[in-house]
Amino acid sequence: METRNQTDVSNFYLLGLTDDPELQLHIFFLFLSMYLITLLGNLLIILAVSCDPHIHTPMYFFLSNLSFTDICMSTATIPKMLVNIQAQNQSITYSGCLTQMCFVMVFAFLENFLLTVMAYDRYVAICHPLRYSIIMNPQTCTLLIIFSLLLSILNALLLSLTALRLSFCKNLEIPHFFCELAQVVKLTCSDTHINDLLLYLVGSVFGVLPLSGIIFSYTQIVSSVLRMPSAGAKLKAFSTCGSHLSVVSLFYGTGFGVYISSILTGSSRKTAVASVMYIVVSQMMNPFIYSLRNRDMKGALRKLISGTPSFQWLCHLPWTCVYRMKQNNS
User: Fold this and answer.
1) Separation of alpha carbons 157 and 151, rounded Å
2) Range 292-317 average pLDDT
3) Do the beta carbons of residue 192 and residue 34 sit within 8 Å?
4) Is 310 left (phi over 0), alpha (psi -120 to 50) or beta?
5) Strand segments (E) across the chain
6) Are 240 and 126 in contact (CB under 8 A)?
7) Confidence of residue 329 (pLDDT cuts 50, 70, 90)
8) Cα-trace Rg, the chain
């Protein structure tokens, strides 16, 4: 087949979820609504955590970072899709495709690590309550976020940079609504053994290890809670984990569903439809899960909506909350 070097590639073409013009209009408004809900919901979580001093604790500091990551993940994919539908133009530049691919991986890895860090926070709070304020001090919380971010960037750059060596065939159509590494690699006429090896290696190591850490943390949590003599203490301990468990189930459940879909169906278009749950719906549902299942978050949101003066939140940026966290159990 005739090939082109990456320097000769000017555009890829995102085919989206359907070719039907009527359905595209419905998809446009559906994704626009979900994007706005995602922005509003996660922004409210960030502002509530920032403005309420009663929840300046490690658990809510990590939650505000998770909400910020959800906003970034949605922003990396949905706006370009909406622009393409509105303009009736499926193209995305070569550099734009690689950039989008890199950012999606950064925020996907970061969300993975943040969920693990949040599970560790719950493990320390329940299994080692007397040492919680010492272990989860502001410096440790900051380092955990920085380490997660650096590790996410390094992994994404490693996978993205290996794509620069690829040459592509005439067919530059990506049957997806965003540039996904696996779909881009399928378009190449080059040898992809290195890309495939790195993709499986990084995906296995940084997918299995965080999930194993979460499972281990909750195994210890359940064991510790069952030894508590008071039924009220057991209920309180489990209630602090309910929201996080729901988010973990949604994140890994939808991710596993995308993987199974790609294996069983063999259809890139059906895999793209399944990816909507992982890339879009998961980020939209997280604020609802935390606001509906968490009494402290309900109270903070109530205060924010009913009593917070305009622009007061500008003095309380979410990433500075860690310096104001109370040295007590969450």
Assistant:
1) 10
2) 63
3) no
4) beta
5) 3-4, 11-14, 91-93, 168-169, 173-174
6) yes
7) very low
8) 21
Specify the range with the lowest mean pLDDT, choosing from 1-10, 71-80, 262-271, 278-287.
1-10
What the block records as the tokens of 226 is 């069952």
Which residue type does 186 have?
A: K
Instruction: Please tell me whether residue 207 adopts helix, strand or coil conformation.
Output: helix
E strand or H helix that includes residue 217: helix 193-226
Structure-block tokens of residue 22: 């009527």
The identity of residue 232, as a single letter, is G
Written as one string, the DSSP assignment of 48-62 is: HHHH-GGG-SHHHHH
- Write down the pLDDT at residue 261: 66
Q: Which long-range contacts (CB under 8 A, 24 or more apart) does 265-269 make?
A: 268/175, 268/176, 268/183, 268/186, 269/15, 269/17, 269/175
Local confidence band at 135 (pLDDT 50, 70, 90 cut-offs): very high
Q: Which pTM value belongs to this model?
A: 0.85
- Reading the block at residue 53, the tokens are 């001093």
Assign 22 a pLDDT band (cuts: 50, 70, 90). Answer: confident
Q: How far apart are CA 57 and CA 201, in angstroms?
A: 35
